[in-house]
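User: structure tokens for this one?
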Amino acid sequence: MSFSNDIRTDYKTILKDGCRIIDVRSPSEYQLGSTRNAINLPILDDEKRKKVGTCYKKNGQTAAIALGYELVSGNVKETLVDTWTKAVEKGSLICCWRGGLRSIITQNWLQESGVNLPRISGGYKALRRTCIEVIQGCSHKNFIVIAGRTGSGKTEVIRSLVRAINLEGLANHRGSAFGNRKTPQPPLASFENNLATALLQIDRSGPIAIEDESRTIGHLAVPLPLFDRMRISPIVVIETPIEERVENIYQEYVVRDNNPNNLLVGIDRIKKRLGGKLHSELQDCMTEAFDKQNKDLHQRWIIRLLSKYYDPMYDYQIKNKYPRVVYRGEKQDVLRFLSTFEIKT
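Assistant:
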């Protein structure tokens, strides 16, 4: 078999451009971490990869390669090529773990069927290394942190800005005890890879808006180089009336989620901080509100949770950050301020 020399090594461009990546690693490899726009179409599934690995250990590389070809020959090969071909779109690339035999075979089989795609030299490992380097470079970027009390609309502001990183979106979590979504959070490597991609897709001029977060978002940790930079960056505070905050929380967590169990589990997570009496009161009110589908009861527990738990915690935290606050205002005023704000160096 003649190997194609059509390869790509411009890893940052690949990530920035959002190229469709046909990732032919096994499912278990892919589940440990992937890049944005990658699709997992393995040449060897986990069982077959294990057989090839065992053969390699016992009989060496030549025997393992021969077994690999045998396991994906005939109709299996035809099905694989057909699946890869249907997944191809303009600018697609091929990727395996190190850019080795699996992606070479995929590339050649596609060429035999008339489809010419480059493969990524160094594979996923090279892309992952590039993502780590990009995140390490956060210490040289300018950020402006969007803060505000719970329910003030911080995420909405982040989503409306072009130069912004939506950490909660990338983490698939809303960053609180009640933050679980219906779908699971990504693996840490995927979260970091997608963060790096988002950073690459923002041009260099001007500060990048990012929501005020703790180090952890659900079970994921914000990479330390970024978190350290956030802790010294200027802060803009969104000030939102309590009535609007309550309505925002009601719409987000009660109407759209409609998941009583998630809220009740969330209350249990912060039971020690709330204290037994307040925890019991909130739990009872929440349960009754869902049972009766009563908005007033929902608003009652939301106000109590804000006033007795989230607001005092926020006030304590923002007090320590006060020297970095450069602006306070309602949402539209904050957006106008951000449109003209520049980091003074």
